[in-house]
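Below is how a single chain appears once it has passed through the pipeline. First comes the sequence as given, then the structure the pipeline wrote out for it. We keep one example in the README because the format questions we get most often are answered faster by looking than by reading.
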Amino acid sequence: MIENAHFSVINKENIGLAGSFSVNPSSCENSAFYREYLQLSALSDFQAGRTTTHLFIDECLNRIMGFVSLRTSAIISQEDNGNVTGIPAMEVFMLAVDQAYEGRGVGTALIDYVIYQADELHKYHLGLQYIILAADKKATGFYEKMSFVPIEAQWNRIPKENWSANCVPMSLYLDFEKDYIVSYADDDEE
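Resulting structure:
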């Protein structure tokens, strides 16, 4: 477990921490994009209602260890009869770990936090069946270890942006009868 860390929604007070954030280029195909998103777009996307970015902050060094940007979404499925269905989902729009914190459980903590948020939303606010994401090809092994699976061909329609066009669509089915054991579930967001 990572000690002396907390989650905080991005805001005007903590956006300055983004300047030191960097992703290891050997970990993904577009490492510079994550820093640029965090520095230039995450706060405005939050203010516009497009995403909510959660920063995982090392309290001792006052540094972002990783972040995840979330939004509501759906998996679009077309049935054999031609009907199109939207299956409720939470989308991990973006997830990245600072290269100084690789291999220390930060990615796992971020996914645990996403599952906790999905569970809370389902219990108290809205229906969800899946967590979805468009995984960088170099990160698919990590997501598979976290129980994500590639989305089947008939469900391959999830939102993608230009930056994620070559990514692998993946999903995690949420079994709300299961008790998820999640790190950082009791943290307060600032």
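The first strand starts at residue 5 and ends at 9.

See the next section for the split statistics.
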